[in-house]
Each structure stands twice: as C-alpha cells, then as structure tokens.
Amino acid sequence: MNPITRTLNVDNLLLLALQEDISSEDVTTNAVMPEACQGTVQLLCKQDGIIAGMEVFARVFTLLDEKTEIIPYVKDGDEVKKGDLLATVNGDIRVLLSGERTALNYLQRMSGIATYTRSVAKLLEGSKTTLLDTRKTTPNMRIFEKYAVKIGGGQNHRYNLSDGVLLKDNHIGAAGSVTKAIEMARDYAPFVRKIEVECENIDMVREAADAGADIIMLDNMTPAQMKEAVAVINGRAKTECSGNVTKENIATILDTGVDYVSSGALTHSAPILDVSLKNLHPVE
C-alpha cells in the first residue's frame, strides 16, 4: 500500500481497532511493565499458506510508537511454511505487548483470505474465467480483505456502491423491468460506468442482452443454464457467474464459457492463517 492510501484510508481504521482494544489503558501490560524497556519479539508462522498484510501488521506498532522497528523476512504474496520466522519486532516492550493482538488479527485475517483465494485461483488456471471477490466483507475491513484477495491471485469486483452499477433483483423490481432498470441506469450514471445486471433465468438474460447491458450476472444458475445463457448473449455482453461459489464446486463452471466468477466465500468464509508473536524478551 502506498503512503497516501495508507494515510487516507488505513491509518484511521487501524487507530479505531487499537482504540477498540485499548479503551483507556492496557492494564496487564502497565502492571508488569510500569516503565519503558526495550525488547524484541519474533513473528512465527504456525501454518502453511500465503502471507498478506505485513505492512499493516507493522503499521499497528509504528502508530503506537514510530520508533518501533519491524524487520520483515517475507513479503506479501510469499508462500510460508509452518515454523518460518516471518519478522522480528524491536521496541518498547509496552508497545509490543499492547499492539500484539490487533496486529496479529489483521495479519491472520488477510493471510487467510490470500491463502484461500490462491487455492481457488489455481483451480481456474488455464481457463478464460477470472476470479472476482464481492462486497460480502467484514465491516470496516473491506480495504484489507480486497487487498488480500489480490495478493492471493484474485481480482476485485466493485469496491463499494459508488464504484459501479449493479442492478440486482430488488433494483429491477423497483424499476419495473430489466429493460426499464437498464434505461434508467444509463440515463443517470456517468457514461464511463458499465452497467451490470443480475439475471436469474434465461428470459431475463435475453432481455438484459437486448437492452444493452455491459455485463450480465448469471445468478445461481446450473452449469447447463449458464451454457445456454452464454449462447444467448453471444458476445453482446461480458458474463459473470455468481451464487454460492466455493472451492468445492468451482470446477463445474470451467466449461460454461463465462468470463468471470465472483465468490463471496473468498472474504466471508476463509479461515485465518495461524501466526503468533513469540519469544519476547528484554534487550540491552
């Protein structure tokens, strides 16, 4: 993450997380460490996976004390193994103790998403289909979770509601029809915005293609229905498959001909990658 992105979009979120964990003081740390004392601690990997969030991990500590030194031995996107030394953190022991949980929470969550995403992306290698995430992210974690998807080999769908037009079933219901919804979106949205439409059956697909949708989302369709939809669209729009897509069933989509597959599981169901801070001790 570049410094501008970090300062504008990340630092305030990290500070909120720290404030959540330290509402007034770290009682335990202040009890055993009443005065400043320099120390060092090791960041150890306890599980094989893909690392993501090293800069975020480090930033938690430097927000508490800019003099904290983080020495990384891996970078985002690296494959890591159980037992690997990922980094050493040097600084005021009070900072190392107080920032530990928040820093690890970010690193574990982001690395877990990157690891899961990499495992799904590998199943699509050699196909024409691109793996996308969704907006099914943890509140106030979207910037971190979508970054982790990229590190894992996926691509980002729209970032938020301001980022693109996606007409879902309830939007279509509010407008009255697929055609009317597309017409209204095209009249309202800037001309540079693509218009995507969620379709649940072939009739909706045909209507969306005829109305000039740029992307047609095939929602919860069977592989046979997706193949039929791709044939009906016949290149008039890009196609996206969506709806309960996981590592276990994504193989069924490979020969349908869709351009994109979006999976909420990348962010809402990825397990964490287990990492921990160990061997803390004072230094002269």
Mean pLDDT: 95
- The string of secondary-structure elements, in order, is HHEEHEEEHEHEHHEHEHEEHE
- The number of helical runs is 10
> What order do the strands of the largest sheet run in, or round the barrel if closed?
6-11-10-9-8-7
Helix content: 40-55%
Radius of gyration: 23 Å
**What is the overall silhouette?**
elongated
Give the tally of β-strands.
Answer: 12
Strand content: 15-25%
Oligomer: single chain
Q: What is the makeup of the main sheet?
A: 6 strands, parallel
Structure classification = alpha/beta
Q: Show unreliable segments.
A: none
In short:
With 284 residues, this protein is of the alpha/beta class. The chain contains 10 helices and 12 strands.
Can you put this structure into words, describing what you see?
This protein has 284 residues and is of the alpha/beta class. Helix content is 42%, strand content 20%. The chain has ten helices and twelve strands. The strands form three sheets. Strands 6-11-10-9-8-7 form a six-stranded parallel sheet. Strand 9, helix 9 and strand 10 form a beta-alpha-beta unit. Helix 1 crosses helix 3, helix 3 packs antiparallel against helix 4 and helix 4 crosses helix 5. The longest helix has 31 residues. The protein is elongated. The two termini are 34 Å apart. The model has no long low-confidence stretch (mean pLDDT 95).
